[in-house]
Amino acid sequence: MKRAVSFAALALAAACGPGDGPGSLTVVSWGGAYARAVTKAHYEPFEAETGLTLAREDYNGGLAEIRTQVDTGNVHWDIVDLEMFDATRGCDEGLLELIPDDLLGPGADGSPAAEDFWPEANGDCGVGNVFYSTVVAYHPARFPREKPAVLGDFFDLERFPGRRGMRRSPLVNLEFALMADGVATDEVYAVLDTEAGMERAFGKLETIREQVVWWEAGAQPPQMLADAEVAMSTAYNGRIFNAQVLEDQPFVIVWDGQVLDIGQTGIVAGTPHLKEALEFLRFSSSPEAMARLSGEIAYSPTRRSALPLVANHRETGVPMLPHLPTSPQNLGRVLTSNTLWWSDHLDEVNERFSAWLAR
Length: 359
Hints:
Elements: H1 7-15, E1 24-29, H2 32-50, E2 53-58, H3 64-72, E3 79-83, H4 84-92, H5 113-116, E4 127-138, E5 164-167, H6 173-180, H7 188-192, H8 195-206, E6 212-215, H9 220-226, E7 232-236, H10 237-247, E8 252-267, H11 274-284, H12 287-294, E9 334-336, H13 339-358
Helix pairs in contact: 1-11, 2-12, 4-13, 6-8
């Protein structure tokens, strides 16, 4: 169970530590379009309001660097954007600070934070900041006649020839493979729980393996599509949206079979700037800050009262609601990522995936 922690008590303790006075925080995020979006929506307004300086760093996820910093007592990251299963694992391992129960402010309509956030958006050590989806996207010029329309088309090299981009990770790829092979969304993780289901998923991936170009950073799929390195790619929906509206790329998103997930923000355990880090987390988790972020990149807020505040894309004026992964027209067939399943199985599945790649 989560320990009851007082924001005021933690702030007082932090004020007596190395984080004294105006200083700087190091905020770590995903780079590319997302880093630009969170800079405009969160970092710059926070700096203007508090006078603190935020040093920015990028990474590609995982807990390795956080674990090294905590284990050696040399913590130089403060705030980190995390995939939800990493936030869960990091919390269990003591790599992240517990979030005080009284940290989060009320909704824009005055509702308590506990009611304003979507269920399961927050964890003991992470505050949900966005809903995002991994989708399939394609360049229409690569398919002059029939266009891909469903997830299964990604795996159909005969009707839709060309190389495919996929993240170098079993995450989402296994889910995509099973859904494309006919498994219902509500059965995907039960099937993956079996050896036969795991073999089925890898077998489906094997059908396109020779045509896959692997990517690791979220900025890569739009570039790969633009350069004709691939005809189709899995990608984060917000990265594709920004390429569409800011770079005039004609990419098309296939929403069928999207895997919806929550991005969380956490604080590295042992940070010498705990007080300031908590201030940032409270600031960035407000409905207004979430709505600003959704005005920069097409990710949905995790607070109910923030959604009515989302209007148009700040730079182009494009209405944002139709492009959010949680908009009704995009939810025809959607799988919500099972954080607990991945937290329990990631290591063993990563080993299997790596061995499969090396064959």
